[in-house]
Design goal:
By secondary structure, the protein is α/β, with parallel strands linked by helices. The protein folds into six domains: 32 residues; 104 residues, PriA, 3(prime) DNA-binding domain (GIY-YIG endonuclease), CATH 3.40.1440.60; 61 residues; 179 residues, P-loop containing nucleotide triphosphate hydrolases (Rossmann fold, 3-Layer(aba) Sandwich), CATH 3.40.50.300; 180 residues, P-loop containing nucleotide triphosphate hydrolases (Rossmann fold, 3-Layer(aba) Sandwich), CATH 3.40.50.300; 88 residues, Ribosomal protein S10 (Alpha-Beta Plaits), CATH 3.30.70.600. The chain is built from 21 helices and 31 strands. The strands form eight sheets. Strands 10-11-9-12-15-8-16 form a seven-stranded parallel sheet, sandwiched between helices. A six-stranded parallel sheet has the order 17-27-26-18-25-24, sandwiched between helices. Helix 5 packs across helix 7. The radius of gyration is 29 Å and the shape is globular. The two termini are 28 Å apart. 45% of the residues are buried. The N terminus is likely disordered. Bound molecules: adenosine-5'-diphosphate and zinc ion. Adenosine-5'-diphosphate binds next to helix 9.
């Protein structure tokens, strides 16, 4: 199998993991596989990099209960035991099964089976992305604790009429005061609340003043579709009606909810969620990970009287397991999650909302390369329910679909508050230069001053982490690069280290040049957010500054706290990377300054560079003046004539879209044509290049296909691996997957250190 070698077979469920011990103990209770002979065989798919199912005999009768497609089973696999899923049909290389070698399923696990629709979804994604079936299945098993035995948790509760403990200490008294409310608490929590050690709690259990009880299993909050009534504007009402009728129709449809920032898209799509809830269906709201803010959750609770079930990378393993089961059992009514929430085992999903649908973080670029927004649409079509895509700056793809009538176009033209959109001005850096070694041009500095004087907030946006993107030696010109990647090291001054943003390599900032040995000659070139913060603190020493950058605020919880503090006006000047651009509603923010408007435009090979820059700049400037008119945006640029800058400054989105769509049409770029990227990599430079050339030579001829390259990738080396790229362009009516599948059959085996990744609908061209 060609695909088998594209991914390392992972160690999921293999010996050594905590799971392994549990598997061993399970197996001790079973008899051997010999008794299996003569029984029926079923196909089982394993969550590994293979594109086929394996046949296994059914387990002994008693165990066969629950054995149906979708059931999780334990099977011997080579020297290991693994968890797999009973599949609804055999998938594979067509070789006849040797019954003499066939093994038996060891047992059916006591875990909710995957719904039938999930199996179809796995197959669809695998076929579309060309990823092995098993790797797609693996995404549906991303909650390991589901497969581990449930440990009942114990807590303690106050005993009402117990006599005072023999020896009352202040610590004991504090514990008893805390516990007097009769709630069940885990010992460590109670000890923490009372400010003492768990030993004190144990002492009170011994004295009979506290009693140990099982902590009841948590359940998701109850949601009430009627909890809060909103008064909608006429425009909003029309949108609400359109979305509700899509839910009522009870079949597949896609609506593009296209509304300016602050137009009330969230409130409007909540009504569609309420409708789905009222009909007894589950709903999924997908957000770019970083936008899972307390703000959103607070608004959800206000609307539905309870919190949704969350699904994102910051969940603990136990929370993941719980959420997975709630979804499978239908107890989770609404899930709010990042892209991987799409792969939960919904028992009755009836609506998906993809908020900020244009956001590039919906594309996953490792293992299985998929675009979650597009797969959400696929899921809707498989489940025959509506999908709503929401954005203030929809993707060109969704726009084209809305224009052609494939998607319903639901428009919210104005802000709910009635506030005008901010006025945007360009600052031509060729004319208005910042002082030497500074990054803010005089008009921007002046705007910050004015905003401060009015007691309002400013936001300075620069989509670059760290202090400076390049460090060079003044005497010999040496640039400090990553030893493993084609990339400069980025200085992070707070940590006093240089970091590679591609591989994570870092080293302390050196004090002399590694090449010429000159001391004190290293200089930082260009700005990152840390450097802008430094300038702001010098210029406005009395202002309260908040710096938002994902590397400085590592957890979601801390991020939510910082965002909350901004909402509460605890900062005057906010400086941030793209995490400030998305979804937030900062009521007092009056001015947004973009430090480097040209930053995203340089990526020449990326057909979406213009679109993405437009979206980002529009979103970030759209944070200004959301509650009142008079908000403004200033964009520093060296290219004020660039169509993207023109569109941002004039606010003329439609003519920008028009141009962009024409350009895509002419170049047969998505959505008018289809793309796939092939990336070959190896530690040996020649090996990578030769194999890439070999692949290109084998490309079957087709009038509807152009194969570009191979060419050295823009980031030619990552983690010491040399990278070569090919780009496949196909017309829309061609089955690009079939073409590539047939092509790859003719390419020699991928041996040794070579790696080939295939990315259908690529979003990264680096
Ligand atoms: P968008 O998602 O389009 O940026 P939001 O849904 O965040 O817009 O709405 C912007 C602000 O206006 C929010 O504070 C929201 O609560 C408020 N809002 C919008 N529509 C209404 C409404 N009909 N009733 C009350 N508040 C509303
Ligand atoms: Zn690196």
């Amino acid at each position: 199998m060609l695909w088998a070698i594209l991914w390392d077979i992972d160690s999921f469920g293999s010996t050594g993991s905590p799971l392994a011990g549990f598997l061993e103990s399970l197996l001790d209770q079973l008899d051997g596989g010999e008794a299996a002979k003569g029984r029926e065989a079923v196909p089982v798919l394993l969550p590994v990099a293979l594109d086929q199912t394996y046949d296994y005999f059914t387990p002994p009768d008693a165990e066969a209960e629950g054995l149906r497609p979708g059931a999780f089973v334990l099977v011997p696999f080579g020297p290991q035991r693994r968890i797999g899923v009973v599949w609804d049909k055999a998938v594979g290389d067509g070789k006849p099964v040797n019954r003499a070698k066939m093994k038996a399923i060891e047992c059916v696990l006591d875990v909710p089976a995957l719904p039938e629709i999930s199996l179809g979804f796995v197959e669809w994604i695998a076929r579309y992305t060309l990823a092995p079936l098993g790797m797609v299945l693996r995404m549906m098993m991303s909650a390991q604790s589901v497969f581990e035995p449930e440990k009942p948790r114990f807590g303690v509760r106050y005993v009402e009429d117990a006599a005072d403990p023999p020896r009352m200490t202040p610590a004991r008294q504090r514990v008893l005061d805390q516990a007097a409310d009769g709630l069940i608490r885990v010992k460590s929590t109670l000890a923490h609340e009372a400010g003492c050690s768990t030993g004190v709690v144990d002492g009170l259990v011994a004295s009979g003043n506290l009693v140990e009880v099982a902590v009841p299993e948590r359940k998701p909050a109850r949601l009430d579709p009627e909890h809060k009534h909103n008064d909608f504007t006429d425009d909003q009402n029309q949108a609400v009606m359109a979305l509700k009728s899509a839910v009522d129709a009870g079949n597949f449809s896609v609506s593009l909810l296209d509304g300016v920032t602050g137009s009330g898209k969230t409130e409007v799509y909540f009504e569609a969620v309420a409708r789905a809830l009222a009909k007894g269906r589950q709903a999924l709201i997908m957000l770019p990970e970083i936008a899972l803010t307390s703000q959103f959750m607070g608004r959800f609770e206000a609307r539905f009287g309870g919190a949704p079930v969350e699904w994102h990378s910051a969940l603990s393993p136990a929370d993941r397991g719980r959420a997975w089961k709630w979804v499978a059992r239908g107890e989770a009514r609404v899930v709010v999650g990042a892209r991987s929430a799409l792969f939960l085992p919904y028992s009755d999903l009836g609506l998906i909302i993809v908020d900020e649908e244009h956001d590039a973080s919906f594309k996953q670029d490792d293992r299985v390369h998929y675009q979650a927004r597009d797969m959400a649409v696929v899921r809707g079509s498989l489940g025959a329910f509506p999908v709503i895509l929401a954005s203030a700056t929809p993707s060109i793809e969704s726009h084209v679909n809305a224009r052609s009538g494939r998607y319903r176009h639901v428009v919210l033209p104005g802000r709910y508050s009635g506030a005008e959109l901010p006025e945007i001005t360009g600052i031509d850096l060729r004319v208005q230069q910042p002082d030497k070694g500074r990054w803010l041009a005089p008009p921007l500095v002046h705007a910050v001053e004015e905003t401060l004087e009015k007691g309002q907030q400013s936001l300075l946006f620069l989509n670059r982490r760290g202090y400076a993107p390049l460090t060079l030696c003044r005497s010999c010109g040496h640039r400090i690069e990553c030893p493993q990647c084609t990339a400069w090291l980025v200085e992070h001054r707070f940590r006093n280290r240089l970091h590679c943003h591609h591989c994570g390599f870092s080293l302390p900032v050196p004090d002399k040049c590694a090449k010429c040995g000159e001391e004190g000659g290293l200089v930082a070139c260009g700005p990152g957010v840390e450097r802008v913060a430094e300038e702001v603190k010098e210029r406005f020493p009395d202002a309260r500054v908040a710096l938002l950058s994902s590397d400085l605020i590592p957890t979601l919880i801390e991020m939510r706290q910082v965002i909350k503090s901004i909402e509460n006006r605890e900062a005057d000047i906010i400086i941030g990377t793209q995490i400030v651009a998305k979804g937030h509603h900062f009521p007092d923010l009056a001015m947004v300054g973009v430090v480097d408007g040209d930053l995203g435009l340089a990526q020449g090979a990326d057909p979406r560079a213009g679109e993405r820059t437009f979206q980002l700049l529009h979103q970030v400037t759209g944070r200004a003046g959301r509650s009142y008119s008079g908000g403004r945006g200033l964009v520093q640029t060296y290219n004020p004539e660039h169509p993207v800058m023109q569109a941002i400054i004039s606010g003329d989105r439609e003519s920008f879209l028009e141009q962009e769509i024409k350009m895509r049409q002419r170049g047969l770029l998505p959505p008018f044509g289809r793309l796939a990227a092939l990336v070959v990599s190896a530690r040996d430079k020649g090996l990578a290049e030769n194999f890439a050339r070999d692949i290109a030579r084998h490309a079957p001829f087709s009038e509807k296909i152009t194969v570009l390259g191979p060419a050295e990738a823009p980031i030619a080396i990552i983690r010491g691996r040399y990278r070569w790229r090919l780009l496949v362009k196909a017309s829309r009516d061609l089955d690009i997957q079939n073409y590539i599948r047939a092509w790859m059959e003719t390419v020699g085996p991928i041996k040794g250190d070579l790696k080939l990744t295939i990315d259908i609908d690529p979003y990264s061209f680096l």
